[in-house]
Design brief:
The protein has three helices and 14 strands. It is α+β, with helices and mostly antiparallel strands. It folds into two domains: about 170 residues, no CATH class; about 60 residues, no CATH class. Strand 9 and strand 10 form a beta hairpin. The C terminus is likely disordered.
Length: about 250
């Protein structure tokens, strides 16, 4: 949900002169031992935008589904990142993204913050002011439904949705928070950071389908993936709350 807005920026946004709206994002990996990564979907006047003294790297992406009317279910937006150019070369910023996916379990559970401001309030604008914005929204990366040679897509859930209500000592999510094993160089798997107890040789993809290679072995962090690995009637070490996504506060 957006924070309380400065009346002056509302006047600017609603005034007769249409100001360009700039969209800025951050992904917070500090709970997992990483850092905060700042990015913008596109350059501003040919350069990486800076806002409030911080520069946002340009990471080509398509951000959709953020609109919310104030009634009905909370938005579940998605971020789709381009990995390669038309000529097939890997983008340098995408190389960094792919490395983060490997190191931080597909970024599942990471906090994504979206900020909208006006062009003139960027650091090189006519009225630079890092405190003026049109809204700040906070989301959690819930799923990575797509990854191929051209793009990576993340599905987000709102931080004010019921799934993210904080119960004593832990956050309630319908996905499993355990860190799944990652393929090791030379074959096999690296369990150094893994908290999921699965160590069997059988491999499955995000949808719970059997796959042949270690590189394809990825868990979707849902009950489908857990049952594929431990059996429909086995003891499931699922760390989430499967039904909580169906609950809404009234």
């Amino acid at each position: 949900m957006p924070e309380t807005l400065d009346p002056s920026i509302l006047e600017d946004a609603e005034g007769s002169v249409v100001e360009a709206t700039i969209e800025l994002f951050s992904i917070d990996l500090t709970p997992f031992g990483g850092t905060v990564h700042l990015f913008a979907p596109e350059p501003v006047d040919g350069a990486a935008p800076a806002f409030g003294g911080q520069t946002y790297s340009v990471l080509p992406c398509q951000a959709t589904g953020f609109e919310w009317s104030g009634t009905g279910p909370m938005p579940q937006p998605s971020l789709r990142f381009a990995i390669s150019r038309v000529d097939g070369d890997l983008l340098s910023v995408a190389t960094t993204l792919l490395a983060l996916l490997e190191q931080y379990d597909d970024l599942l559970g990471a906090t994504v913050t979206r900020v909208e401001t006006l062009r003139k309030h960027l650091d090189d604008g006519l009225d630079p002011d890092g405190q003026k914005h049109l809204g700040i929204e906070i989301f959690t990366i819930e799923q990575k439904p797509l990854q191929n040679g051209e793009m990576v897509e993340f599905r987000l859930t709102s931080a004010v949705d019921m799934e993210d209500v904080i119960f004593p000592r832990r956050r309630a999510l319908n996905r499993c928070p355990f860190i799944y094993r990652i393929p090791a160089q030379g074959g096999g798997f690296d369990y150094a950071r893994a908290t999921c107890p699965y160590t069997d040789s059988a491999r499955f993809d995000y949808e719970g389908n059997a796959v042949a290679t270690d590189a394809e072995d990825k868990c979707g962090k849902d009950l489908i993936g857990c049952k594929a690995r431990f059996g429909d009637y086995g003891t499931l070490p699922f760390g989430g709350f499967p039904a909580i996504g169906k609950i809404r506060l009234t």
